[in-house]
Design goal:
By secondary structure, this protein is mainly alpha-helical. It is globular. It starts with a helix and ends with a helix. The chain has one domain: CDP-alcohol phosphotransferase transmembrane (TM) domain (Four Helix Bundle (Hemerythrin (Met), subunit A), Up-down Bundle). It is built from 6 helices and no strands. Helix 1 packs parallel to helix 3.
């Protein structure tokens, strides 16, 4: 692994993830700024990698993996702690999509094809981070019972599900095209 600024930012997000999980376990509001800071480092590491030509195989693989850890574990936590704002099937859709896309990416890259992130994938990540931050805020501040705040939360959860599924479909179509180009059934 190359220790450069981009990869260090990626690794810092993993450390922030551990801190985030400890904080949400104790329902500490500090989890929200830690998650938001992790989101900022997600934007920064890619920018730094491109700007300073620090793109590495490690960063290309670790970056989305760490994002998936943060998002999946965060939504799994919310199943039992959000007063039914996130149902178990909703978390399962999010985790399932992440696993399917990871499998597709791994398959394509095993064939020597770089499976790039799409606009939909990046949009999905933004919506997931925003929804997760808002929901963790509600849980840690004990505001899940206020009607207006619950409505906003429900809209964010449903937006997250729609964008998550839509981006998954985009990746399935992308993978299908790549397979057809190679002539593999």
């Amino acid at each position: 692994m190359v220790f450069n600024a981009a990869n260090l930012l990626t690794l810092s997000r993993l450390v922030m993830g551990v801190i985030f999980f400890v904080l949400i376990a104790f329902k500490s509001w500090v989890a929200v700024p830690v998650l938001l800071l992790a989101g900022v480092t997600d934007l920064l590491d890619g920018w730094v990698a491109r700007k300073w030509n620090q793109q590495t195989d490690f960063g290309r693989i670790a970056d989305p993996c760490i994002d998936k850890i943060l998002i999946c574990c965060g939504f799994i936590f919310l199943v039992n702690h959000s007063d039914q704002l996130v149902a178990s099937w909703m978390a399962a859709v999010i985790v399932g999509r992440e696993l399917v896309v990871t499998a597709l990416r791994s398959f394509e890259e095993s064939k020597g094809v770089v499976f790039h992130a799409t606009f939909w994938g990046k949009s999905k990540m933004t919506v997931q981070f925003a929804a997760l931050a808002y929901l963790i805020f509600l849980v840690t501040w004990g505001r899940t019972d206020q009607a207006v705040l619950r409505i906003v939360a429900q809209v964010l959860v449903w937006m997250t599900l729609v964008v998550t599924v839509a981006s998954g479909v985009v990746y399935l179509i992308q993978a299908q095209r790549l397979v057809r180009r190679r002539g593999n059934p």
